[in-house]
Structures
1.
Amino acid sequence: MQTAASRQQTQAKWQKAISLAELEERSKAIVKLDGKQILVLLSAGRIYAFNNRCPHEGFPLAEGTLSEGCILTCNWHSWRFNLEDGETLVGGDTLRHYPHDIRDGDIWLDVSDPPPEALRARALAGLREAFDEHDYERIARELARFERADGDPLDALTHALEWAMDGLEFGTTHAQAAAPDWLALRSAIASDDAAERLIPVVEIIGHLSWDVLMQKGPFPIPADEAERFDADVFEQAIEDENEALALAQARAGLRAGGGQSLRASLERASLRHYQNFGHSVIYLDKAYELAGILGDRADAALLLPLVRSLCQTAREDLIPEFRAYGPALAAWDSTGMDAPDAGSFRGKGVDASLKLVRASSGQRQALYDALMCAAADAMLHYDASYREQTTKPVQENIDWLDFTHAITHLNAARKVCAHQPELWANALLQTGCFLGRNAKFVDWEQETSQWSATDNDQLVDDVLASMLDHGEPLYIFPAHTLKVATALKEELALNPDAPWKPVALAALNRFVNEPMKKKHVRRAVAQASRFVELEG
Ligand code: FES
């Protein structure tokens, strides 16, 4: 049903454009009507009226080339439009046409705008095409059109999450995980600048689109639904990596009680193992944060991929380096009363780190602070020479993001443990795994005083604000910067005088100011060649 506003806007608005005689003489004319710049063409006896601004980048179509009577080529980047049926033959966005009428020798145009719902539907259809092709600029254009037609960009985002659902072979990625941090940044934008406020949404949709495109699906999430939701069956299905059963249970849970009905089970599953190098609990925490912003409408699009990712995730506690995690968890009794000390984690491997964590198991808050400090300390002292090394084995491909994850993981785990305190042992021991694993890749002797940011209360906010023009061609890097800065902002808001604050700010300062090697050509080829030689 049309609203009063849309009825008003669909009323025809005929305006005189040019006399037929003049058009016959000139064959084309640009007219300005109702604030619009319209090109009127006479070709092969037919009249066409359409926007003079090319829908690609706005250059004048009056300078284009007409062929076959009705095919117009924009000479800037060769987009082609069929003026007869309105189709864009080469390029993407739709060219707007205007109905015409001839009255008493004059050409009249209907310059009324379509109803907003039609404009939104068209923008959304265009956004879907841009999403499928990862056409970043078009994603931005269609979102701007959607918003101009009174659409809420978060509605468009919800659609994009649904489009991504069946395109992600392993479920949730950093695209969904960084989304609530982008939206927090959006909320913090003080200006009314619509373009500025659109940046976070464009980035999220661009990232989703990229991840889907790179995976070359589809990988449909089955529509099967269990008769009733049973939390034990659901959790066991995830534990057994039985994706079909877990998804069927998840669908039943969503139908019966919405996303919250799955939450406790998913929280337990996200921390049950040291898995996916800490991503699982981050994905879980961020999925619920995003669902809180977007509302129930996004539950399925966020939680079904999350269930898939939990079923498919790599469980590093099964590999030799982290096998001590299971026994340490089984032996956890919250009676360890050693005063935790961040410095004591320096140089300790996984087994020794887990022992240190257990020794302070009865000092939960102090242990948490010590682990946050130790994670930041390791990040501040990352041995950047690793990024230049090309002859090391694959397991030594350690870089900045391995360090930022220790902090982001602990931040997410803290929030999950606020609802599920019995998971603290998992969370703290898993941080011990991070510390032990990263310990080999730090240089404790290096000078770090130049990174001190104790006097810079604005550092975290400045880093976050810089994300709005980050300049990175690959989404994964700004996603990590955004996530670690947001994690520190959240932690410092809770504990402004945290003992680890100086070292965490220095670590962040170094991370955002040191160059990061983002592609390792020589190392990748050397490792591949060595591997192929050994495979026999
Ligand atoms: S502006 Fe017309 S094709 Fe680019």
2.
Amino acid sequence: MLGDVLGIMQGGKSGGTLATVKIDMPSIWSDIERSLHNSQTASERSFRDDVVAGRVSSPFNSIRLFNGEKEDDVRVTLYRDSASWCPYCQKVWTMLEQKEVSYKVVKVNMRCYGSKPPEFLRLQPNGNIPVAVIDGTVYKQSNDIMFALEELFPDKVAMGLREKEAERGTQLLRLERELFRAWMYYLTGSRDPERYKAEFLAVFKKVNDELGVPESNTGFMLGDRVSIVDMMFAPFLERMIASMAYFKALNNLRSDEFKNVQRWFEAMESLPSYRLTKSDFYTHVWDLPPQLGGCVFEDEGELTKAIDGDVGWRLPLSADNGGAEKDWSWINEDKARREAVERLSYNHGAVAEFAARGAGKAGFPPVSAPLADPNANFDESAVNSVDAALGLACYKLLGKGDEKTAELEEAIAEVLAGGGVESFNASLAYLRDRVGVPRDMSLPAARWTRAVLNEIMITL
Ligand SMILES: N[C@@H](CCC(=O)N[C@@H](CS)C(=O)NCC(=O)O)C(=O)O
């Protein structure tokens, strides 16, 4: 999708700048807040307070405290990337959650979208993430962090290899790297795609076969329980499924053809720890190329377009994004819509300014990641009408088709009739394309947000 405004021409007037929407926006936002509050569950209402206090798990956490622990009890600080794109950070993050080890989080930029603060570079001079400080010791490699967690927190949920599993576990970890290498060759190499593809599929099949070995039927790698091995595979299998569909038109990796992999995904997706850190296809396929220095298209076809939202980001939402990506069954539609409203409304002024970058100027120095531009400048004149559009998006998400919605719609249409339609559209498209999963919201909430923003562009 990215920047393409669906080729939609609206009733608005081209050129010029956007005037101020003639409506009392503060009262609209209070009304939205009230409606949302009335429809929320108790835990949804206390979400922001719970995040700050570390009582619930969220990508927004700066601290997460399990089992009533206090800030002073926290022994781990995890440095991970602000956009939640890094797979090595994801495996550590998921493991902390699964083991219920309390932790603090410090977010840093990745190279592809910014620079790192000197405090971080003093810990890790090469700039790589993740880094963890545990009991004052600095660990600079994801696997070292994971093994240290296992060793230093013996009272927490055990995820390490038991003695009898050591050999097979180590073999599986080697297989994980073998799969990673084969995937990298195929995804980023252009010399011999046929060979790369055959090699990747052969190793993928090996993983599927290995997953069929354990006698117990949990779906996890070691059979009887989720372990460090699953944590190490998860971020990469997740990215493989997304990138192979998008760049190579391969959509059979999570299907009956690889039944054990399919069952493994279902087992992983039963864990709140993994649900929290899981991303969506769209975010992955746009965040991988800048991290890897590019990915090679073999077949830019229907799946590519579907992942970019050509049909799935329209209302009514199609199941499984039209077959391209499995829906998240654990979040129902109503919950997803409330989540989307909460994320858009909580700090709507900042969201509007962010979106108005679409009508503003690219940042300097430029960054290589198309979804991120920390230095971008927003267009001041677009902020007010974009804020109004966000209000309209919230009403639509709340399922409100009443007078207030119509009044707001009319007021925005009046502004657009006076000019500035391109700035308005570009701002909404900018936001739509940059809703990050899991950083900003879950996939079901993101799909609603993206579709509602599109609908506003179409109908106004
Ligand atoms: N072997 C390292 C690899 C970590 C790694 O490659 N991290 C990448 C991100 S996925 C990185 O830090 N790149 C620098 C950056 O993007 O800032 C580990 O397991 O921790």
